[in-house]
Protein: DNA-binding HxlR family transcriptional regulator
Organism: Chryseobacterium geocarposphaerae
Amino acid sequence: MNRKTSSANEINKLKFHCEMDVAMHYVGGKWKTVVLWYLIEDKKRFNEIKKLIPNITEKMLSIQLKSLEEDGIIKKEVFNVKPPLKVEYSLTDFGKTLIPLLQYLVTWGGFVVKEKSHSIHTKQ
Amino acid sequence: MNRKTSSANEINKLKFHCEMDVAMHYVGGKWKTVVLWYLIEDKKRFNEIKKLIPNITEKMLSIQLKSLEEDGIIKKEVFNVKPPLKVEYSLTDFGKTLIPLLQYLVTWGGFVVKEKSHSIHTKQ
DNA sequence: CAGCATCCTTTATGATACTG
DNA sequence: CAGTATCATAAAGGATGCTG
């Protein structure tokens, strides 16, 4: 695999130094991977996601959903115009290409929790 | 896989909401994955990494390397005490468990660059 | 229900100069 | 060579109240 990534990539006016930058643009930050994780299973409504992630604020959830939608990772469907609104979020086909990555992240995270809780790992 | 992650995990005094939080703690941020990517191949010196990532500042590289070392992902070896110093950074065994993830990230990033540059993907 | 607006604090990142 | 110190901005995150 090529590590000599001296040329910059450009996607929608954004410049990236390397493929890693590109990937992290889509899944980086504190919340995106968590939100996406809960959308793998099935489409969900705003408050469903909110309840699944107790410590996220409505503002942050709103920002993440908007960002993911703009990036084409998820799609938003509005089912009625008058309150109470019904809105559903789901992965796009493009977003589904992230599933293996999300699964690996969760698996690795779980692995680390086990390792660390058993104090197998120490600082080197 | 279990998505009901209501219980918090704790690693070295840090609390995490779910496995995803844990994983992102180790590889999140703008630089960590990039730095780690260049360390897969072989151990490297500070200025070697710096040259491979032209737009990183010494300060940021220093912060990332310190953080990765504290997390046990990389190890630092100092070979002489008097300037000019020789310091080498390399992945620990624990850090090497991240390699598949890093490879997937780069592969996915490359895939996206291709897709987007061909305008196959549009906002939904 | 599904958000947005506002104000605020905390992290992250950056530019530049300097040191053992 | 391998960093640190300082000053600064930008981005992320959060609390609270309000709205169509």
Observations:
- Chain A touches chain B through 57 residues (CB under 8 Å).
- Residues 5 and 18 of chain A are 6 Å apart (CA to CA).
- Residues 45-47, 50, 58-59, 61-62, 78, 83-87 of chain A lie near DNA strand C (CB under 10 Å from a C1').
